[in-house]
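The material for today's practical consists of a large collection of protein records. An example says more than a description, so a record of this kind follows:
***
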Amino acid sequence: MGNWLASHWLSVLFLVSWLGLNMFLFVYAFLNYEQSDKYYYTRQILGTALAFARASAFCLNFNSMMILIPVCRNLLSFLRGTCSFCNRSLRKPLDHNLLFHKLVAYMICIFTAIHVIAHLFNFERYSRSQQVMDGSLAFVLSNLSRHEKEKDSWLNPIQSPNTTAMLATFTSVAGLTGVIATTALVLMVTSAMEFIRRNYFELFWYTHHLFIVYIICLGIHGLGGIVRRQTEESMGESHPYNCSQSFLEWDKYEWSCRRPHFVGHPPESWKWILAPIALYIFERILRFYRSQQKVVIMKVVMHPSKVLELQMCKRGFSMEVGQYIFVNCPSISFLEWHPFTLTSAPEEEFFSIHIRAAGDWTENLIRTFEQRPSPMPRIAVDGPFGTVSEDVFQYEVAVLVGAGIGVTPFASILKSIWYKFQRADHKLKTQKIYFYWICRETGAFAWFNNLLNSLEQEMEELGKTDFLNYRLFLTNWDNDIAGHAALNFDKATDVLTGLKQKTSFGRPMWDNEFSRIAAAHPKSVVGVFLCGPRTLAKSLRKRCQRYSSLDPRKVQFYFNKETF
């Protein structure tokens, strides 16, 4: 736990500050609307529901301001580059941008529910105060608009006893925009569930762009001025605490209190979201400009297990290890952009990605290139963008864990290491790399066999065979494969991969692996990097905490997971 706090203290501080601001804004707005004299008469009709509606609106504005910032990828990449020489704990919050984006979305859902429920009560009370006709203060206030001289100073937006709360909801600016914004929010949140996002990415992608509808509705939501307060001038001549008890005598005598005048609450949402919207528009313009730059496809390789490799070049393209790009193929879909980790090294003259068939878009793309069309279909590229894997060379010891196609960011790292050794780069801080690749089928190992084989030979020639320790694990096999491997176990190379390192059957025994690494590097800082499923992430995170020493001068494991 101490190790986790040491590396995540800034993330925790940021999260606590965000939660604290939400609490402060809610309490501040609630007390303001519950106690302010300007809203005394409004509370006579609406009661405490007014304070709940306005307090949740404040928090909705705040979180709607925050929701777009974590997905401004160019801003995050710039900050990551600026902090490249900072302490690793200062860069940690940048690795959790999507998690923070989700937390803000959940907070928006919570406050939306409070806001909607409170306003349902408000509309019902507005309607009821028009219909009771009991001569109460609420009834008198609701009928102020019937006096011609004060027709612009109404308090109740429902002007007729025949108008129902439902009709008022769908015929007012605030009500209609609220319904549309809430519907858009529900669709965005439900389509962002992990199951839908992984299996129906196109549905997630298109539905998530309803945020444009949500933002527009939020900006104009307050134009109707439904929530009203007493004007300053009216407060001076007929303060509610002096005049509310004599409401039946308002304007009746010369010495009587004047009828109160009211004004609509000015719209405020646009003030909160203007700056983030401007930042996001700039982000999109920059990404659009970069996506229009010409991309030349230099080589197309079809690997086993339906994996497509594209080697490309683009003027001015510069990358770091572990980064990713967004790819679009207009001939398949003009609007869809999909993220892929770069598998090339910064030292290479091209950049490459490996694409596995996992959905309609990727299957169509692979099918298109399998046909060897002439000319090649146009590919648009946006990026690159930074990830946590950029920090791999900041650690003395690195543990890389890839599951299936999750090996791609580590291919870039291993290639870069190969180039650094060839060029005798003495600035390389990393002294040891442990690489674990977990696959379901043997064909997947063929993707980077040549790379691993080249690394083996390079390490031998340089006398650094201990620098890279890699293990390949096959989790899905039959008796024929296992028997064939057992019969040929004594051979110099593995019969499944052709590499010197033998393939293991099953999954890694992580306790044994971490215990061995901790014993081999008793005073080192070990970075553990994963590109794989959530269950594996949970397991590795626990091991990092378990095998980190309580003494900060001894071995410390820091967990890092790829998210994009």
